[in-house]
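Support request, please re-run this one:
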Amino acid sequence: VRAAVQASDVREASFSHSGADIFLEQDAIMMRYTLQNIIMLMAAVLAVVLLLSADVVFTGVMATCVLSCCTHMFGWMHLLNVPLNALSLIPLLLSVGLCIDYSTHVVHAFMAGRGPAEERATAALRSRAAAVANGAVSTGLSQSLLLFSQSLVFSTFFQVMAGMVLVGLFHALLVLPAFLSLWPDLGTGCAGGGEGTTLLQPPRVVALPLEQEAWCVDVDDDSGSGRASTATPAASLIGSPPPDQE
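Re-run finished. Output below.
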């Protein structure tokens, strides 16, 4: 309509107006407005995560998870033919903060664990899966009454919030454990921190012939050079063998 007015001879002397203008203007700016709000909301949520966790790696994992959840939410809306408008935008923005809640528990349990990545992911899933599932079920039950509403506002809210529950559970219980099980074991088994830190390796038992003597080598940890400072015969530490085994 604006193009037709501009192409006419009257131009600035006239303007288009109708009762549907408010809806047409909304559709014209909705995508740009949605992306702008999602970016601002993600920045605010991740800033709080970084402030509370003080862990850049943890925040990076959560940023990836939130971005993936938002992408899946757009796919969910397309699957249910939910249009992007003022009604669906509100629960869509709410889903950003609610989806991250499910994933935070699993990632936090993984980061606090010890051992190989696969074992830590399994332990995190065992300790947090029930609580995350209970939270998702309670959220779904609280929204279930909206399913029977005849109002477009309530039905749209229910559809988007149901997608939020499913997408959040999908990432927290399936995607994240699979992703974290492939996490590189960087710095595991490291005692303390800072300079001069030595990696704690599991003790190894070496079978030696009876005529050879085993020595226990003590590493100088204070110097951080890794050079042997003392060497002690192993027999003096574990005692002489019994007479019937000599």
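The chain has seven helices and two strands. The CA atoms of residues 22 and 140 lie 33 Å apart.
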